[in-house]
Amino acid sequence: MTAPIICNNTAAVQAILDSLVTQHQFDPAQIRTDLESLEHWGKDWTKHFAPAPSAIVFPKTTEQVQALVLLANEHHVVLTPSGGRTGLSAGAVAANGEIVVSMDKMNQIGTFYPADRMVEIEAGVVTEQLQAFAESHDLYYPVDFASAGSSQMGGNIGTNAGGIKVIRYGMTRQWIMGLTVVTGKGDILQLNRGMVKNATGYDLRHLFIGSEGTLGLVTHAQIKLERPPQDLTVMVLGMDNFSDVMNVLSAFQAKIDLTAFEFFDSVAIDKLMAHGQVQEPFESRTKFYTLLEFEAPYEPIMDKAMAIFEDCMEQGWVVDGVMSQSIAQAQELWKLREYISETISVFTPYKNDVSVLITHVPAFINDIDHIVSTNYPDFEVCWFGHIGDGNLHLNILKPETLSKDDFFAACQVVNKYVFETVQKYGGSVSAEHGVGMTKKPYLHYSRSETEIEYLKEIKKVFDPNNIMNRGKIFDVE
Fold first, then answer.
1. Closest alpha carbon to 31 in 43, 44, 42, 17
2. Which residue ranges does the record assign to the FAD-binding PCMH-type domain (predicted)?
3. Would you state the CATH architecture of domain 348-445?
4. Fold match between domain 10-105 and domain 348-445
């Protein structure tokens, strides 16, 4: 782990904490400084940086957030926002003495607008909580991923989270109708106010979506909801050539609106079967697998799906396949994709979350496989991801003979070649997990120097004293 470099003055931090209680109606219970709390709230799912915050603060209102930000500016103290801490890029890690601003106590669902199919929420609302609320009103919030049970909407907005339904429903950005934010200067802004049509100049909410808390803190959001999908059906198909994965994607997309198209390889299946939590999808073992999902409320859609499947078999693209016959079977098939990350975690995987145009996916995977096998023939690579939107998860698994430090050091060398390949295809070094600190050294592979300078200037407008999540995405002088 990287050793912390303390950036906040202890006396200044204490002055802020005292002022919050004596002047801004904070209950002492809204502030924690014990070591256990600092460890718990100072980190996310990454393990590259040791958490070392100065304090954890739990505001309950936008006005309390504003008071904290104004005091942080006055005392030149850095703040790090914290949601469900499920991030994979160290965007929520407080490694340098920051005050962590946890949204845990801002977790209420507010006004529901049935005619607009929209609901107001606080930033600390958990994704699954929002999904359950939508379901209770016969509606649907479609942004979904493995951490839905613990990730918070403020964090999802900060990273523009994606997940397994992007092929149909898009990223978090598509569902944010309005935001209330406290800027790095301490101003409260209400952005777009939930409107569908609003042609009054710059739409600042889109700057805050994906900004990872570097411009300010999201406190409330207005979220668009959708009609629920009907009779979701899942198919898992096995193929021996990666080009056939793309052929199958094209064949189904030409005639059916897919809600998901996921991909995983034989290494993932081997690990899943060894772990024993899921069943073999079919008797054959193939090199590549796809999981596709679609709505089938009418018999003609099911007939069409079967016709496409049979055509794919005749073309020699698909070796074997299975289709769900019930909700329970669909859930079991989804476990083949959803349990991969948990299953391979025991191998201390070095993860990369990258994206390229779908057109470039076959050539990109071929190039990366060649890079890893040439430089590290003893490393096992597990591929999976949301291939229907060009997002791939490259997982290099640690050999038993290597220590974690030596393994990560070796993977850092591979990173250069991986990201040069991403750049070659005009892709992104972070498709859906944000930049944080882990991807910061590689930002220039996806963004030009001129573009990064514009990003830095935008930050200076909203956060002139550089107190908001300092050191994330890029460094500002």
1. 17
2. 49-228
3. 2-Layer Sandwich (3.30)
4. no
Digitized pLDDT (tens) for each residue of the chain, 477 residues in all: 343 444 568 999 999 999 999 999 999 999 999 999 999 999 988 877 889 999 999 999 999 999 999 999 999 999 999 999 988 888 999 999 999 999 999 999 999 999 999 999 999 999 999 999 999 999 999 999 888 889 999 999 999 999 899 999 999 999 999 999 999 999 999 999 999 999 999 999 999 999 999 999 999 999 999 999 999 999 999 999 999 999 999 999 999 999 999 999 999 999 999 988 899 999 889 999 999 999 999 999 999 999 999 999 999 999 999 999 999 999 999 999 999 988 998 998 988 899 999 999 999 999 998 998 898 888 999 999 998 999 999 999 999 999 988 998 988 888 899 999 999 999 999 998 899 999 999 999 999 999 999 999 999 999 999 999 999 999 997
CATH topology of domain 232-341: Alpha-Beta Plaits (3.30.70)
Q: What is the C-alpha to C-alpha distance for residues 453 and 461, in angstroms, rounded to an integer?
A: 13
Query: Residues 34-41: contacts with CB within 8 Å, 24+ apart?
Result: 41/82, 41/85, 41/94, 41/100, 41/102
Helix (H) or strand (E) holding 218: strand 216-224
Whole-model pTM above 0.90? Answer: yes
What tokens does 197 get?
């049509």
CATH topology classification for 109-224: 3.30.465
Q: What are the structure tokens assigned to 261, written together?
A: 């198209």
Q: Which residues of 292-330 are buried (b: 16+ CB within 10 A; e: fewer)?
A: bbbbbeeeebeebbeebbeebeeeebbbbbebbeeeeeb
